[in-house]
Automatic annotation (TrEMBL):
Organism name: Gordonia rhizosphera NBRC 16068
Pfam families: Barstar (PF01337)
Family, per entry: Belongs to the barstar family.
Domain Barstar (barnase inhibitor): 34-127
Name this polypeptide is given: Barstar (barnase inhibitor) domain-containing protein
SUPFAM superfamilies per record: Barstar-related
Amino acid sequence: MPMSRFLSAAGGHGRVVGVWPGDDAPALSAGVRWVVVDAAEMSTIAALFDEFSRAWGFPGHFGRNKDAFDDCMRDLAGDVADGHEPSAYVTVIVNAEHLLRDDPDELRWFASSLGFYRDHYRDVARPTATFAAILVTAPDLAEGVETCWRRAGSPVAILEA
């Protein structure tokens, strides 16, 4: 699926997670506020909280628990380079095959949370915005990442250049 189509679908009721089979993060269009996090640094849920906090600039009082994470992820702020509100918030997760490798039972929670955040930015936030996550992994690992996420209850879109 082309990136533009994925982001358009994610902004509605489409899949919120896409797998990018490649070595580098994909290019994203103007108007998208995006961060890159490294799944190799997120082997546990606590490490995931830390990495997302760093990347998205969570406030110092972030409680490093699921409720606090939900609050912060639904309150992402900041303009894009042109000074306007972003049309989308995208988390690019590189080395996706390593995500929560020491805490695999947490993937189901994390996967369902991404849909929760997407629904918030689509239905509640003003102005509305697309919310999505892109899992970057080596092409030979993409099928395994896709299977892992499907088993966690979150079918993914396979992205293409």
